[in-house]
Amino acid sequence: MIAPLFVLFDYTFRPDVVAPEDAVAWAWEDGIRSADERCLAPDPYASRTAWCHARVAYSEARLAEACATAPSILVNHYPLRQDLVRLHRIPRFSPWCGTRLTEQWHTRFGARVVVSGHLHIRATDWVDGVRFEEVSLGYPKHWHRERGIDGYLREILPGPATPRQTGGPEYHR
User: Cβ contacts of residue 78 below 8 Å, gap of 6+?
Assistant: First the structure.
């Protein structure tokens, strides 16, 4: 079952020493701003956090029902796990990258693959035997036209063997 999620961010992808309500100010201390703060209106919700939590609740209920009998492919713009957000050049952009509420969905809802694209940094990771694909094409300045489109496409299913089958690490890029 392919499950498009439309789950947002709630500022919880940040260091534990930074309170969620301070996450935007923490990022701004380093000059990091997200266009979402001015362009993504939360209406009819009171805040982006409330909107995110409503989407999480809705998606959890639907996934619990739909994934009870079939494996899933979870698809969301934002990553479902904080540990997969590796923004070495702009680490303080992390508050706009997801919610901790989805961190266990890959095992809870029987995902074979989890697909996202928000980070603009293509990667393949394995967590708990589940493959996570960050499939963004990135920004045009990072494209290598000589690769052609085939250099950017990802096979989602059946996909590559698991790290355990190949002797690779549990997390890898």
Answer: 7, 8, 9, 97, 98, 99, 116, 118
Strand pairing class (130-134; 111-116): parallel
Q: List the strands of the sheet with 111-116, edge to edge.
A: 2-4, 72-75, 111-116, 130-134, 123-127
Please report, in tens digits, the pLDDT of each residue of the chain (173 residues total): 999 999 999 999 999 999 999 999 999 999 999 999 999 999 999 999 999 999 999 999 999 999 988 899 999 999 999 999 999 999 999 999 999 999 999 999 999 999 999 998 889 999 999 999 999 887 788 888 888 888 788 889 888 776 655 444 444 43
pTM over 0.85: yes
